[in-house]
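FORM 7B - TANDEM STRUCTURE REPORT

SECTION 1: FIRST PROTEIN
SEQUENCE AND TOKENS:
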Amino acid sequence: MERQGVLTIIKEMNLASARNPVYGSVQHFLERLLVDVAAANYRYFLNDHLSKARQAGLRNPQSACHSPLLENEAQISGLFSAALSGFCPVFRPEFPLAGEVDFMVTYGEREIALENKQVSVESITSAAEVVALEKRWKSVVEQSQRRLALMREDKVRFRHPISIGLLMVRVSQKVRVAANVSPEEKAEKALQAGLKDFNEGALTLGGNVKSFARAHFVAKYEFPREMQIMSGWKRDRRSGGDRVFPGVVFLAHVCTRV
């Protein structure tokens, strides 16, 4: 049976200090956050679909709906704000801390510095793209470490500090032009190849890969089927503008004192 629109935890956090229920389990925090982010993203899609479906002559309105998880970091931050407001009513966007951290969140007895980053790849299993992904991940880890060091200097303001660097790896592939194949068949073939790469790659990132050993938490979110083929991407005009989006992988590096 196909399982779409599913959030799967690939690697749970084994940091005892971060899972301390007295102060607030960071494992539970991340799970709740990603569930609410996925829900907010789908709610956006449904509303956009209702609007697009009213347009005369638009054959597949779902393919014209570009939800926030497919867009830039600013729009993704809007999703995170909506999610955090549901279960963490005390949070501050763009909090000044060695620059500006995306969110300073109060969760239980903890203060959490949450930094969201994203990277887009066509393949998680391609060696060339993994090298670029490794560089991005390294910068996320180093930034998270710097944030915690600063938080630890102010023990009154930050009682039980946590710093989370969260990297969203978005997988997408062009629907390339091929002779004697219908657009629908081309898109379906591209999607199946993308899903295979996405699922295999997510397991790899959650495994014992040295470069990603500091990923304390790994999850994947496979988009619902109606959100996996999108049109209208300007940079892809030569291939018809269609891309397939199997889903996203979330990697979290967690720095904690207690």
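SECTION 2: SECOND PROTEIN
SEQUENCE AND TOKENS:
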Amino acid sequence: MLQQFNLYIIIVLIVLLLTVSGGFFAYHRIASADIALLEQQTVTYRLAVDEQTRTIETILADAAKLATANKALSERMLHTETEFAAEWSAINELDLMSGGSLDDMETRANDVFGKSIDQLQKATSR
């Protein structure tokens, strides 16, 4: 009877050992699959972060170029407005509304126009 009891205990222990081994094997396979999935996600996230980093660097470089171009444009616009004001001043100096005959106004206008043409030719000649 004791031998039979020992036999049952050994069989139960072997079954328990196989059950624990099978459980560990299943756990190991599931954990390995989870680790592989997490590694794949890590690679994907690293690629996304690298791409976003390059995008940010590109945006910053473009912003610097845009700031430089915007400054140059503002300076050109200021220069153009200054020239426009000077041209209006020159037109006002013609004093077309003052008294005098039409012939005098025409002569003065022709003189001023001739001077401006001469100045333009001097400015554009090499």
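SECTION 3: OBSERVATIONS ON SECOND PROTEIN
The chain is about 90% helix and 0% strand.
The mean pLDDT is 88.

SECTION 4: SIGNATURE
Preparer initials: ____
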